[in-house]
Amino acid sequence: MSTPELQWFKSSYSSSNEPGDCVEVATTPTAVHIRDSKTPRTAQLKITPSAWARFLTTLPT
């Protein structure tokens, strides 16, 4: 059984003037994957969707 490729995206708030200064996120029904856009082939975080939602609620608006 093969694993589908993750579809990574950056925040709409990411500045195109500084293309390497952000994180990228890929979501699946059971996990949120997070990586550094400057080094996408290195370690990644994998957290639950509920943990991601809690994290997002702590960010300043």
From TrEMBL:
Residues 6-58 form the DUF397 domain. It comes from the Bacteria. Pfam families: DUF397. This is DUF397 domain-containing protein. It comes from Streptomyces dangxiongensis. The lineage of its organism: Bacteria, Bacillati, Actinomycetota, Actinomycetes, Kitasatosporales.
